Sequence to fold (741 residues):
Amino acid sequence: MPITKHNRLVASTIAVVLGATSLAACGSSDDDKSASQSGPATLTFWTWAPGMDKVVDLWNKGPGKQQQITVEVKKQASGDTLITKILTAHKAKKAPDLVQAEYQALPTLVSNDALADIAAESKEAKTKFADGVWQQTTLGTDAVYAIPQDIGPMMFYYRADLFKKYGLTVPTTWEQFAETARALKKKAPDKALTTFSANDSGQFAGLAQQAGAKWWTASGDKWKVGIDDAATRKVADFWGGLVKEGAIDNQPMYQPAWNKALNTGKEIAWVSAVWAPGTLTTAAPQTTGKWAMAPLPQWSAGENVTGSWGGSSTAVTTDSPHKAAAAKFAAWLNTDPQAVAALAKESGIYPASTSAQTSDAFAQPPAFFSNQPDFYTKASEIAKTTAPSAWGPNVNVAYTSFNDAFGAAAKNKSDFGAALKTMQDATVADLKKQGFGVAQ
Amino acid sequence: MSSLAVRKAAPAAGTTPGTAQGPPLRGRIALVPTLTLLLGALYCLLPVAWVVIAATKSGRELFSTFTFLPGTGFTQNIKDLSAYRDGIYWKWMGNSALYAGLGALLSTAVSAVSGYALAIYRFRGRETIFNVLMAGVLMPPVILAIPQYLLMAKADLTDSYASVLLPLVLSPYGVYLARIYAAAAVPGDVVEAGRMDGAGEWRIFTRVALPMMVPGLVTVFLFQFVAVWNNFLLPYIMLSDDEKFPITLGLFTLLEQGSNTPALYTLVITGALLAIIPLVALFLVIQRFWSLDLLSGAVKS
Fold:
């Protein structure tokens, strides 16, 4: 009997101990990253750009080898989820040395103290970028939180062949754009000029930026949210009006139905950015060589402004034990001609660096636009007209609210102004909840 | 015996409530339930059919041809998928097999030992442990992913195979199921008889109880395997090196390549199709272990 009793105890302890293994294995050691500033450094780099490993190889075999700085690429999925992942890792002080981050995500990362100030290491790099681009990485301070990598100046894409067929002219103002949409509806009721989509907030943000909106501005230690300002309201009412009268479509982008509409010529134009050729290649493969690109329509004739949609930067985290080395790499990656050329070739990015935009890598138009030889010359001219952007610490909240409110409004063809108000209120409420000061 | 009775009763329970009076006519198909089930089957199978057919389409055909018209690009899609970044897809497949296979095996072993102990032995705190486990069953694992990450980071285990495997070892649901099953399938008399014959507790467990628990443990294994195979958040938070990614994460990186690069739809769809094949195969193979009546006549009560 005693033996049995003993064995029972053993068996039941096993049950409990094994059950707790997963926890026990966790609390065993508590050592930090050894912070050796001098000597050889190995940096980890979270990025989603395809082919980045090949670009980094150039560094590891060239300048990196001389300076004993090795960079390891860890490929990630892009998007808001990556920001969450970086912040989670940062909470455990385990964020990678370098991260790729979209411009609108920088304030979120900075307000969580995840990004290091690399102003001292990036004085030379600053000269390689247009002011409007560089300003996005400073957040209006003296600090520098990232080196710009790629940009997404917005443009107007249209089916040149179908515009000709229906006798349409390329709109240069938004008013003409609306007229073109109506004219097409009259001539071919089953077709639409384009769609207003509520599933990518970047597009709407870029259009508002073109109109002069400043969604977030910092004054003192307070944020001012201007989503529901006059400029944005103008944009919202314009698109809401077109959707309501049925002049344009209201289906979301990137869905199979949208791909089909582009591929079959049911939709004949797209307000997009410099990276559109890549998307069109997969969405509408049967329309190669039939599209053309023009500057975005303007709010008043004679103006020359565009917004930006997309684009990202390379940042150094506060967790990195080798910040100077990481900053050196970030500057090389986005300014060295050889590196930027490789980025363009391997990752298909449109570089932020001004001189790179007119380099040999961009002498030829994208294959999809072989009919427009001056595609990249035009693109670099348009890029110079990009309006300054103003991002805040909770862009993700504003974007989610946009998807919900505008998604419903576009579907029901209801008032876009109300949706804009919802977006403004949700953004302000979240800022307050997070503990930021909000100026009225 | 009891299961036989249940099976007999089943058809009567399945007929429409409206015809409850009197026995249902032989040969007459109950129309409403059959239709409902057919609709349900259609609802479940249609997306699968979509994946199967979409995987045969080339990039050009994917969004241009009729949805359920098979394409011509299946072999090319598989070739492209295998060629993508030197065949990293198969590496992800291997990782998924490792996480799901080893993870489910470990967790089944722990569940078997713990469930058996909780069912057979009476000791102080047994109910408390069981209640804590019940609370664990109700807690969605998603909530735990970030705390688990922070713990793993303390132990310097993040971005390793262990960081994904360890949190999987204890499955409250598995322990719960094993306990219920052990209580029902392993009669106290059999354990007592084993003791009378001089067998040690470990021997009784491995030689007598374990074989009786096999159908239940197969269920635990299968549940865990499927759960791990489809798991996303835990590996997403834990891993940063895409050489260690399971298939769910790998396919996600193919979809989210940044705005300047289009999503690789054909690769993702083909990859998703190939990823369900192991699950289907596992179900087919393991089904034969679900012979529940095998040992039900061991003890007469």
Observations:
- Residues 222 and 282 of chain B are 8 Å apart (CA to CA).
- The mean pLDDT of chain B is 85.
- Chain B touches chain A through 57 residues (CB under 8 Å).
